[in-house]
């Protein structure tokens, strides 16, 4: 019954949909939902998924790769370089401290030193998938806690390469048996001497950076010009698969390579396009990954020695949490941030599966030891979201040292996010003025040639179609305060307006329109912030004409302001009148009649509006009447 | 309870320590309207009908502004020019403001000592404010001595805090009812006995 792929797909998808929506309804992280779904469909509860769960686990690790690629996209090379001290410092202390303590623990309980060392390596690593997914879901990426967690996880991603390199040295078996057993490895460089291995690793990193700059970006430009939506999806996958392949070729972690690739592309105009394309796939793959973890929990092993497993599990989590707390203290994190860090990284991560099975293949570990550690790993991962809930609901509220929310006046520019759609002549003027006040809007434009050109001029412009909700989302619409539609295409403005009205009513929409008719439509949709491009400039020109004819400039300036107010008011009155728009000729006639009406009214009223200020003649006249 | 209109004019509020604190303290008081002129009319195009309406809804008008070059900032003068119309605020039929109370609330960089015949400013604050006093008189309003925060260049945080509290108390007194007899011939409303006793 479990043989068919379709059936498996149905089991996984249904499990995910049911459990995740229940978890979300209860206000829990989606990770808990996925893990629970995995346990349910796994071999020990409903039994829909048997041994193949492990294959799925390998396949679903691709979700972790995608996640790191997406994280890389959000970190610009400059910021990455700035983080080097936290990465090395926090990561080093965490991995070193955890390894030391757990080695002492296992050695104390009589394990062989090699076994203790391998286990302590596996235990030191946390789960990037679980921790980062939870952090992103809660929107904590920009806090000290977020960056600290990320730094530590990144360090682990790097150090795991050396761990995998070191494990064979512990083995008594010969190299030949090793390559046979370690079937997943297809590394080219295993047979090379150590110096060349290092060289190959450095070379592959350089290759990724160069490829990113000189091959991927031009390719994406070509694809964007073709204007076929699914080609962009294909291109995004090609990038991630390609990088993973290169990395596996030289024996590096594909996740690390994907992260590097992301960092390289984070400066490119396709950042948000790639994000919005990969985001849903990443989430699905990660979900699959979590379900596979849930399904791999071996309940028979637990039932056989519940006390040992429970003891080891608690000991490891306590050790990890203490080391994390100390690491946080050394780097002067606030108490609530330290607690968050300790709780969210205290699990044993997915790398443990890789290290443990690798060491088992080299006959360092015995079957029993490996089974125990695999169960502990899976259990600790499943417990993380639960710890998070406990910390969040019961511990943090008692401390009350939240991230400071007080922002001084000059941070207006930083704390309000602006999205600018359309960066033609109109939009770029807006962008320049905002920038002169330190406000860096996120700019979206649909013309790939222009995007390319403007990026060369130093503007942060992204390619993409702003009428797509997913693109607006990756541009940060959820946290935005204002979105500016600076395109003169009414269809685009209306599409954005629809998304804002339905999904993001808190975001203010400010719209450029071509003429009165577009303005009517938008007014009737309930928008107030409408800027007609045909109003201001034409009045300034008219003012200068009258000035050249001898009218005084200040008087003209005041009349321009009066005229504008009059016109804006009449626009709002006319928008309310029912319009029979289907008849084009009628519309054209109506427009002419309207223009004539305005002109006549202006003439009748004399100079626009009654104005007696600074008018001594008027006072004399009134006084003489008496 | 008297309704109070604060016509606040400061061209660079974001840089003003004293005025920001004074205004923040009273902006949410019941029966007090703080009308931020530079925020409402950045292009100096004052909506006269709206301003007239606003004036007629209030009993006390406070011109609150920094004391630039012995006078008010330009938008405040623009407001006086535009809003106080002939035959509305003054002139044979101009009695819209009759009976209302009017005063200046000012902040000066120089201390009280330099505003006298011996000081380098040669004249007192009261003398410099004559145009405002006469404007109020011509419109049939009762003009009170000014509320003044002086020497803002060297004002300590504690002293500023005291001014802030006093401005709030003074607004309370105005709302409750304060007459010209309470002024006790003081040059500054800060010094009247009623404000000193509470």
Automatic annotation (TrEMBL), chain A:
<dbReference type="GO" id="GO:0012505">
    <property type="term" value="C:endomembrane system"/>
</dbReference>
<keyword id="KW-0812">Transmembrane</keyword>
<dbReference type="Pfam" id="PF00999">
    <property type="entry name" value="Na_H_Exchanger"/>
</dbReference>
<keyword id="KW-0630">Potassium</keyword>
<feature type="transmembrane region" description="Helical">
    <location>
        <begin position="309"/>
        <end position="327"/>
    </location>
</feature>
<keyword id="KW-0472">Membrane</keyword>
<feature type="transmembrane region" description="Helical">
    <location>
        <begin position="372"/>
        <end position="390"/>
    </location>
</feature>
<keyword id="KW-1003">Cell membrane</keyword>
<feature type="transmembrane region" description="Helical">
    <location>
        <begin position="31"/>
        <end position="50"/>
    </location>
</feature>
<dbReference type="InterPro" id="IPR038770">
    <property type="entry name" value="Na+/solute_symporter_sf"/>
</dbReference>
<dbReference type="InterPro" id="IPR003148">
    <property type="entry name" value="RCK_N"/>
</dbReference>
<feature type="transmembrane region" description="Helical">
    <location>
        <begin position="87"/>
        <end position="109"/>
    </location>
</feature>
<feature type="transmembrane region" description="Helical">
    <location>
        <begin position="228"/>
        <end position="246"/>
    </location>
</feature>
<dbReference type="InterPro" id="IPR006153">
    <property type="entry name" value="Cation/H_exchanger_TM"/>
</dbReference>
<feature type="domain" description="RCK N-terminal">
    <location>
        <begin position="415"/>
        <end position="539"/>
    </location>
</feature>
<feature type="transmembrane region" description="Helical">
    <location>
        <begin position="56"/>
        <end position="75"/>
    </location>
</feature>
<feature type="transmembrane region" description="Helical">
    <location>
        <begin position="115"/>
        <end position="135"/>
    </location>
</feature>
<protein>
    <submittedName>
        <fullName>Kef-type potassium/proton antiporter (CPA2 family)</fullName>
    </submittedName>
</protein>
<feature type="transmembrane region" description="Helical">
    <location>
        <begin position="194"/>
        <end position="216"/>
    </location>
</feature>
<keyword id="KW-0406">Ion transport</keyword>
<dbReference type="GO" id="GO:1902600">
    <property type="term" value="P:proton transmembrane transport"/>
</dbReference>
<dbReference type="GO" id="GO:0005886">
    <property type="term" value="C:plasma membrane"/>
</dbReference>
UniProtKB/TrEMBL annotation, chain B:
<dbReference type="InterPro" id="IPR046980">
    <property type="entry name" value="KefG/KefF"/>
</dbReference>
<dbReference type="InterPro" id="IPR029039">
    <property type="entry name" value="Flavoprotein-like_sf"/>
</dbReference>
<dbReference type="GO" id="GO:0010181">
    <property type="term" value="F:FMN binding"/>
</dbReference>
<dbReference type="InterPro" id="IPR003680">
    <property type="entry name" value="Flavodoxin_fold"/>
</dbReference>
<dbReference type="Pfam" id="PF02525">
    <property type="entry name" value="Flavodoxin_2"/>
</dbReference>
<keyword id="KW-0560">Oxidoreductase</keyword>
<dbReference type="GO" id="GO:0003955">
    <property type="term" value="F:NAD(P)H dehydrogenase (quinone) activity"/>
</dbReference>
<protein>
    <submittedName>
        <fullName>Kef-type potassium/proton antiporter accessory protein (CPA2 family)</fullName>
    </submittedName>
</protein>
<dbReference type="GO" id="GO:0009055">
    <property type="term" value="F:electron transfer activity"/>
</dbReference>
<feature type="domain" description="Flavodoxin-like fold">
    <location>
        <begin position="2"/>
        <end position="169"/>
    </location>
</feature>
